[in-house]
Specification:
The chain is α/β, with parallel strands linked by helices. The chain folds into two domains: 2-143 and 163-209 and 403-418, Rossmann fold (3-Layer(aba) Sandwich), CATH 3.40.50; 213-401, Glycogen Phosphorylase B (Rossmann fold), CATH 3.40.50.2000. It is built from 17 helices and 14 strands. Helix 3 (81-92) crosses helix 4 (106-113) and helix 14 (332-339) packs across helix 16. It is globular, with a radius of gyration of 22 Å. It is an enzyme of class 2 (transferase). Keywords: Glycosyltransferase, Transferase.
Amino acid sequence: MKVLWITNTVFPDLAVAIGQKPPVVGGWMYGLAKSLSESKNIKLYVATTRNAVKDDEKTLNNITYFHLLGQKSMNQYDPSLEAKWRNIADKIKPDIVHIHGTEYAHGLALMNACPKLNYTISIQGLISVYSRYFLANLSPKDLRKSLSLRDVLKGQTLKQEEQEFFKRGKDIELNYLSKVEHVIGRTQWDNAHCKIVNPKVKYHFCNESLRDSFYYAKLWEPKDNGAPVLFLSQASRPLKGLHQVLHAIYLLKDQYPNIQLRIAGGNIVRSESLKQRLSISGYGKYIRGLISKYEIEDQITFTGPLDEEGMINEYVGSDMFICPSSIENSPNSLGEAQLLGVPVIASYVGGVSDMLSHEETGLLYRFEEVEMLAIYIKRLLEDKSLALKLGRNGHEAAKIRHNRQTNLEQLLSIYRSIA
C-alpha cells in the first residue's frame, strides 16, 4: 500500500539533509512514520511546503520526501501547487492520502487538484473553533494595554490574530471538512465538531503515539526540598493560558513566596534592549505588565526552545505540569507529562476530559476559575501522596492510550478500510 502524508512540518531527517534546523514540534509523527515505513507492504511518502526554497525529492531511511516551493504563507491557498500535486499523484499513485491537520492550505490544493484520491484527515486542533476562545477572557481594557508598536505596524494585534484564526478556519478548515469522507480523531470533542460540519463524514478513532524518549525515561518522583516548580509547555498566545497561571501564582504569593514557574519556549517578555522593546508582541507586553504588577520577576523563567531531552528534564524536575489553555483537543504535552508520571492540572476544555479523569489521573478546573487552579496547585504541593497517586495513575492510563504498537495497528486498519 502506498501512503502519502501531507504534513505541516519538515521531518528531522529531511531537515538535516537540506541543511535546516530540525523542528522541535510535531514529534509524535516521526516515530509513527518510522514504524509505518518499517511495516510490511507499506511504502510511505511525506510531503510539505514548510520552509521550502525549491522543489526537492529525497529518499531517506525508507521514506520518500517531497519538499514543494509554494507561496510564502501556508495560511493562503496557493493554486500554483495544484500542478505539482498532480505530478506527484501521477508518479506515485497513492492508495491513501493522509493529511495531518486542517490549519494550512497546501493539502487543500491537493484535494482540489486530485479529487478522486482516497483521503483522510487527522484532526489536530480545530482553529475554526479555537478562534472563539483565542482571546482567553482578556477584556477590552486588557487588549488596549497589550497594544505594541510591533503588532500595530505588522497588523498583528491580538484582535487581528483572532480574526485571522476565524478567517483561516472558515476559508481553509471548513473547506477541508466539507470535502473529506474520512477523518481520524481521538476525542468526543473533535468527533462532535466534525460531524456538525459534515454529517456524512466517517469518523475513525485512533490515539497518537508520542516521541521516543518519553517511553523510556525515568518516572517523576516527588520533590522534598527547594522552591516549588510549576511547568508549562508553551505560552506564546493568550489561548495557552499563561496569564491565568500568573493570576493563580499571585493568589498563592504569601503562602509560597519562592514558587517558580518555568515555561518552555522563547522569552515573550524580554525587553532589555531597545530592539527587544520595539519587537515585543502584544501578548508579551501584557504578560510583562502582569509580572511587574504582581512583583514576580524573579519567579518566571522562559527556558527557550527545548528538544526531547530538555523537555523531559523540565517535566521530571517540576512539582507538577499545568495545561491551562482556554481550548485544546488532546494536547500531546499533557500526554507526555502523564507518560512520565508527572502530576497534572488541566483546564476542563475541549477534549481534555478524554485524557484526564478528575481526582484519578489529574485535577480539572474551569479555565476562568483561577482560584480553583490556585487551590489545586496548593493541594499538590502539600499532599505528596496525592501528587504521586495522580502521577502514577496518569502514567498507567497514558501507557495504554499512547501504546505505539496498538496505535500503529489501529492506523493500518483505518488505512485498509479506506483503501
